[in-house]
Amino acid sequence: MHITIVSVGKLKEKYLKQGIAEYLKRLTAYAKVEVIEVADEKAPEILSENEMEQVKDKEGERILAKISPDTYVIALAIEGKLKSSEELAKDLDNLAIYGKSKVAFVIGGSLGLSTNVLKRANDKLSFSKMTFPHQLMKLVLVEQIYRAFRINRGEPYHK
């Protein structure tokens, strides 16, 4: 399985980089995982609704440019489905069984994802009703992907 994580913004925090690197290293035994960062759109702090949509659209174009047509896309979005670790593991296992070997998880910028990215998504996943920094979500996502592979293999890790 080839998993791509496409996210908006460059990761700056050393502790997040270290955590993500650790899980990516662990994941090499299970799948090819690639992290792609696209530039965030520079914008002032206070934006009109129209300006927010323009920022999301520009970031969305950058995201979509990194996703091939044959990729199964899972967008991280507050309005997505809440799933347990076991449910995510089952979803990934089913994708592999049914020949969906290319999977992309998409993490938007601070304003969220554009309508076009959400339309392109095959599934929408929510980790919580709470709002999290999009950079922290990258670490949480990589850990959950690792956990999913461990669950699917019946290996000790999941508690």
From TrEMBL:
Keywords: Cytoplasm, Methyltransferase, rRNA processing, S-adenosyl-L-methionine, Transferase
Function: Specifically methylates the pseudouridine at position 1915 (m3Psi1915) in 23S rRNA.
Enzyme class, spelled out: transferase
InterPro entries in the cross-refs: Alpha/beta_knot_MTases, RlmH-like, tRNA_m1G_MTases_N
Keyword Cytoplasm: yes
Annotated protein name in UniProt: Ribosomal RNA large subunit methyltransferase H
Oligomer and partners: Homodimer.
Family (UniProt): Belongs to the RNA methyltransferase RlmH family.
Main location: cytoplasm
Xref: PANTHER family: METHYLTRANSFERASE (PTHR33603), RIBOSOMAL RNA LARGE SUBUNIT METHYLTRANSFERASE H (PTHR33603:SF1)
Binding site for S-adenosyl-L-methionine: 76, 108, 127-132
Entries under HAMAP family matching the protein: 23SrRNA_methyltr_H
Record field: catalytic activity: pseudouridine(1915) in 23S rRNA + S-adenosyl-L-methionine = N(3)-methylpseudouridine(1915) in 23S rRNA + S-adenosyl-L-homocysteine + H(+)
GO cellular component, one term: cytoplasm
Source organism of this protein record: Lottiidibacillus patelloidae
Gene from which the chain derives: rlmH
Subcellular locations according to the entry: Cytoplasm
Pfam families to which the protein is assigned, alphabetical: SPOUT_MTase (PF02590)
Enzyme Commission number(s) of this protein: 2.1.1.177
Molecular function as annotated in GO: rRNA (pseudouridine-N3-)-methyltransferase activity
